[in-house]
Amino acid sequence: MLSSDGRVFTGCNVENSTYGLSMCAERVAIFKAISDGAHEIKRVAVVTDHEHIAPPCGCCRQMIWEFASDETEVILANLSGDVRHYRIRDLLPEAFDARYLEGVS
Prior knowledge:
By secondary structure, this protein is α+β, with helices and mostly antiparallel strands. It has one domain: 3-Layer(aba) Sandwich (Cytidine Deaminase, domain 2). It contains three helices and four strands; from the N terminus they run βαβαββα. It has helices at residues 25-35, 58-66, 88-91, and strands spanning 2-3, 41-48, 68-78, 83-87. The chain has a four-stranded mixed beta sheet with strand order 1-2-3-4. The termini are far apart.
């Protein structure tokens, strides 16, 4: 993950025998970035060691959105050299965010 101030943060899947307690690499990288003072995600790369390119899960898409701009790039790739480029707004259309929380106490 590349922050808007030019720093790079990495993540890895933290898996658990109860899948619900596992953590995706994207969220690990975001948590590291935010805890180190980054404020905005500029670019995210998701690389898999699999034949098929894998996009971020729904939870990770929401987390990226929360700390991104409409222009934040999401790069999907695998070790075979397949690469695709998206904008987070295309991966999470009609995203839920703070706009829907205004006036809610």
